[in-house]
Amino acid sequence: MPALPDDAVIDPMHSPEFQAGLLALRQEDRTAAVAAFTRAAGRFPLYSPVHANIGTLAGQLGHGALAMRCFQRAIAVEPGHAEVWSNFSSQLRRAGRDADAIMALKRALSLAPKHANALCNLGAVLFDAGQTARAEACFRQALALAPDHHEAAKNLGFALLRRGDLRTGFGWYEHRYGAAPLPAPALDTPAPRWRGGALNGVSLLAVAEQGEGDSIQFVRYAKLVERSGGTLTMLCSPALKRLMARADGVRHAVADGDRMPRIDAWTPLLSLPHLLGTDRGSIPGGVLYLHPAPEDAAAWRTQLSGVAGLKVGLVWAGNPTFGGDRERSPRFAAIAPLLTLPGLHMVLLQVGDGRRDLAGHVLPATVTDPGDRIRDFADTAAIMAGLDLVITSCTAPAHLAGALGRPVWIMLPFAADWRWMEGRADSPWYPTARLFRQPVPGDWTSVVAAISAELQAVVAGRRSLDGLA
């Protein structure tokens, strides 16, 4: 009878259990990966990386307590493993413990000063804390050590974009698909990806990516494609399709499953700023590149015609699945004081998860809530067309109001998204926008107080809504 293998002399990384976990990861089956790594942990309880792998996956699957236990086990088994400390920082960030994440990353870098992943992770924490210059330095150090580190390259793009270096930033941002390329869209006749060059006579498909707000912000590039002699088809979500069909420069708007027009080439939508050479002086012109259906806008104007006061749209929450939604969404309780200000009529434009905040609240007579009648962004655009002002958190309606040319006041967290840049109260992307930033992290009270004061000045005639940006 052959001797059984001695676990003490087997490399755990090459064990069938560990390799099954890696295979499941490549197949993007995290549940199966957890099961395989758990079997590996049972066989090799003193192998730190297997506990860390389970911790990472458990955190991604939303099992925070299990993730913390696994990382604590991994560190107890091998406290000198830099990669484990670096990965632990990601779970600490998911738990909202950014200060502890920084300590974990400093521990990783004390063990391995040239650890590119730890430098990239440290940069990400600093970036989200608003320390853009320090974050940029970390990303550059990571890239000096690992030039093909796509995450560090993408994050460097974010840092440069936040600083306003659009041309260089959009170039680095092209690395976002370096590790996992965006799949080509399903077309009847396969078409190549467009990577720049002449557009005369080219039928170009722009594929939406990221969030709905990104689609709204960057569909403005359809006009540049048109001016260059091409035509643009926009592949977007069903919620945006009606709106995109009326965007300047868009020949066709389609959603997944729709019949496609003839396509010569395709591109991710957010690659257009890089491919078309955008810098701060060449952001495609102005506003009013989106338009509601005239009949829909007229119907909503009629419905709101009888209300008195300044008509103000209000949005307080974004998509909760977005990684930074906890920081960017003030929620209803924070903005509720605005509803009782004199001289205003508030129109609630909130849809989705944020509407649950209204449970148990009795709205004043000076509030109209059409939220349950909003089917898509075309409906929201039609309502906005009849408003004097929109006040919103950093979410898709902020972009929609700006693209429609409506006065819009945007409530921003302390470390705002890159597109709002740093230290600005205006936006080169949206001339009608005004930015209200948290003075310190988490302080929505000051933001709402500043907006309240400005609203009262407008109502009293001391301030005009025009030209605020």
What's the gist of this structure?
With 469 residues, this protein is of the alpha/beta class.
Keywords, separated by commas or semicolons:
4-stranded parallel sheet; 20 helices; Rossmann fold; alpha/beta; Serine Threonine Protein Phosphatase 5, Tetratricopeptide repeat; globular; 3 domains
Helix count, DSSP H or I runs of 4 or more residues: 20
What is the CATH first-level class name of the largest domain? Answer: Mainly Alpha
Class from secondary-structure proportions:
alpha/beta
- Quote the beta fraction: 5-15%
- Strand arrangement, major sheet: 7-6-5-8-9-10
What is the CA-based Rg, rounded? Answer: 25 Å
CATH topology of the largest domain: Serine Threonine Protein Phosphatase 5, Tetratricopeptide repeat
- Uncertain spans, ≥5 residues at pLDDT below 50? 1-6
How is the biggest beta sheet arranged?
Answer: 6 strands, parallel
General description of the model:
The protein has 469 residues and is of the alpha/beta class. It has three domains: 7-177, Serine Threonine Protein Phosphatase 5, Tetratricopeptide repeat (Alpha Horseshoe); 203-275; 294-459, Glycogen Phosphorylase B (Rossmann fold), CATH 3.40.50.2000. Helices cover 43% and strands 10% of the residues. It contains 20 helices and ten strands. The protein has helices spanning 16-26, 30-43, 48-60, 64-77, 82-94, 98-111, 116-128, 132-145, 150-162, 166-173, 212-218, 221-227, 238-244, 272-275, 294-304, 325-328, 331-335, 377-384, 396-403, 444-459, and strands at 203-207, 231-235, 250-254, 265-268, 310-315, 344-348, 367-368, 389-393, 408-412, 433-437. The strands form two sheets. It has a six-stranded parallel beta sheet with strand order 7-6-5-8-9-10, sandwiched between helices. A four-stranded parallel beta sheet has the order 3-2-1-4, covered by helices on one side. Helix 6 (98-111) packs antiparallel against helix 7 and helix 15 crosses helix 18 (377-384). The longest helix has 16 residues, at 444-459. The N and C termini lie far apart (83 Å). Residues 1-6 have low confidence and may be disordered.
